[in-house]
Amino acid sequence: MKVIYPVLFYEEKENGYSVFVPDLNDASTCGNTLQEAMEMAEDLIAGIVLDEMEEGNKIPIESKIEDVSFEELEKRLNIENWDYVSKFKTYISVDITSFAKKWGKELVKKTVNIPKWINTKAESLNINFSKTLEEALLQKIYKK
Asked: What pLDDT shows up at residue 93?
């Protein structure tokens, strides 16, 4: 399954790009280069659409590119005197199926080995092993 959304790009004066997807509640991201900004836009779209699908919600309908306006976005975001070099809009196409295979929220079974005494103590405290491992991995990943 593919989705295609119009995306607004602003080339920043200080380098890099700001990116907005009006059809997804003005979701935004950025990138240091145009390629990175486009990849970040794909990731953003895929993440939002996958979340909506997994929550059982309808996928937001895409607008026609000519119906998406820089002026309307800037007004909604209350942006005045934005100092950018250039701006453009384009469609971003995302293969949701490939993102779902890589990033979907379905559970993956893992086998782990821990010392017996830790297992015994954790079970006596009714600790949820899966939830504890998930929390520990998230802390490592995001260095919280």
From this structure: 96
Q: Range of 30's domain?
A: 2-103
The answer to whether 100 and 76 have CB atoms below 8 angstroms apart is: no
Q: In what order do the strands lie in the sheet with 27-31?
A: 27-31, 17-21, 2-12, 84-95
In terms of domains, do 82 and 111 share one? no
Residue 83 shares a structural domain with residue 48: yes
Question: How many Cβ atoms are within 10 Å of 19's Cβ, its own excluded?
Answer: 22
Structure tokens that stand for 47 in this block: 């993440």
Tokens of 39: 């990849």
Place of tokens 């939002």: 48
Both 36 and 96 in one domain: the answer is: yes
Residues 120, 79 share a domain: no
Q: Which residue positions in the chain have pLDDT lower than 70?
A: 104-105, 142-144
Dihedral (C-alpha) 136, 139, 140, 141: value to the nearest 10 degrees? 120
3-state secondary structure of 24: helix
